[in-house]
Design a protein that fits this description.
Elements lengths: L1 H9 L1 H21 L7 E7 L4 H12 L3 E6 L4 H8 L5 E5 L3 H8 L4 E6 L3 H26 L8 E5 L7 H31 L2 H5 L5 H29 L9 H24 L4 H18 L12 H7 L3 H15 L7 H26 L1
Parallel strand pairs: 1-2, 1-3, 4-5
Antiparallel strand pairs: 3-4
């Protein structure tokens, strides 16, 4: 363990990869990442339930952009629906909506969006407002009456639509996965490439002890990386941590262990550092970027890719840290995702230790 710490600190390339890359990525991704949204799950809270609200609702769903996930009965259900991640938007019609619109020429409709992903929230609200405005224009053209129907828009969790609420959690997942997995795989591959692995093999250490000695420094360094990113998000961009910081730290450690186990698994099939680097970048970087929901919403993907995203650890990690950091939820709202990550971690550790032991023999 001491040897590994000293080797990392003396290797300038490792230090740049460990600490230079995270800072560069969080700043780059923070200002350039944009996305689109389709197939949005929304909920309806219709206090009126008249012909007009049903027509507007039907027009919204027939557009192909939205799917009805739930029909709510009380305003108290709105925040819980967002915290569970069931819907991205809730449309609220006031009582007597159709009658007011016909008699007074105006009525109140409220659009409430989950702005933990600010770009998606803005697009969802704009699409919904456009559909409602088109409905009003059709009514005016058909009846020659003056109508004024301007939706009242509210954003939950991120009222100012700051993009930092999207890119900081995604960058945490990306950096922890790449740094932990790549550095571990390269470290063990380097031992085999330089022949120093033989010195470890003739020692009284068992394979599990060798693995622990190799990965323990990266656990500490990866935790520091996560803390640096969270601190940058808070100090530079004003991203709060609304939930339990201890729970957030524990989840990060769990994800780091998962990434390290993947790195060990990659190292068992790699004889050189270059091969380990290539496999890590190809097998981990692209899936983390494309299939985790970090940049591209999973709802936009073909069904096959949506199924494939379920085996991507970063997808579940992103759901967890967004809930803790942005929505301020506790363990009761993320226990399923946490259990999935824990199961993946146990599986990869078992495979890594078994494969590593096999390779040593």
């Amino acid at each position: 363990m001491i040897k590994e710490f000293l080797h990392i600190l003396r290797d300038s390339r490792s230090m740049v990869l460990l600490f230079g890359l995270p800072v560069a990525q969080i700043l780059i991704f923070g200002y350039v990442v944009r996305n689109e949204i389709r197939n949005v799950n929304i909920a309806i809270l219709d206090h009126s339930k008249d012909v007009v609200t049903r027509e507007i609702t039907q027009k919204i769903f027939s557009s192909g952009y939205f799917h009805l996930k739930r029909e709510l009965n009380h305003p108290d259900q709105i925040k819980k629906a967002f915290q569970r991640g069931e819907v991205r938007e809730v449309i609220v019609f006031e009582p007597g909506f159709g009658e007011k619109l016909e008699n007074e020429g105006t009525a109140q409709v409220q659009l409430i969006a989950d702005a933990s992903d600010p770009n998606a929230a803005s697009l969802v609200v704009n699409y919904t407002s456009g559909i409602i405005n088109n409905y009003v224009k059709d009514m005016v053209a058909g009846n020659s009456i003056m109508l004024n129907l301007t939706p009242d828009v509210r954003f939950y969790f991120n009222e100012n639509l700051q993009s930092v609420f999207m890119f900081v959690p995604g960058t945490i997942a990306l950096i922890l996965m790449l740094v932990s997995a790549i550095m571990t795989s390269i470290s063990i591959a380097r031992e085999k490439e330089t022949g120093t692995m033989e010195a470890l093999l003739v020692s009284p250490l068992k394979p599990l002890q060798i693995i622990l000695g190799k990965v323990t420094p990266y656990i500490f360094l990866s935790v520091i990386n996560a803390l640096v990113i969270i601190a940058l998000g808070y100090i530079v961009f004003g991203l709060p941590v609304r939930g339990s910081f201890l729970l957030l730290l524990l989840v990060n450690i769990l994800f780091i262990l998962l990434a390290l186990s993947l790195g060990i698994l990659i190292s068992t099939i790699s004889n050189t550092q270059q091969v380990a680097m290539f496999i890590s970048m190809f097998a981990l970087m692209l899936p983390t970027l494309l299939l985790s929901g970090f940049i591209f919403p999973i709802d936009n993907m073909p069904q096959v890719l949506q199924w494939l995203s379920n085996i991507m650890p970063a997808r579940w990690f992103l759901i967890i840290i967004k809930n803790i950091m942005i929505k301020g939820t506790g363990f009761l709202y993320i226990w399923k995702e946490t259990l999935i990550l824990a199961g993946m971690t146990v599986l990869f550790i078992a495979l890594s230790v078994k494969n590593f032991h096999y390779r040593l023999e």
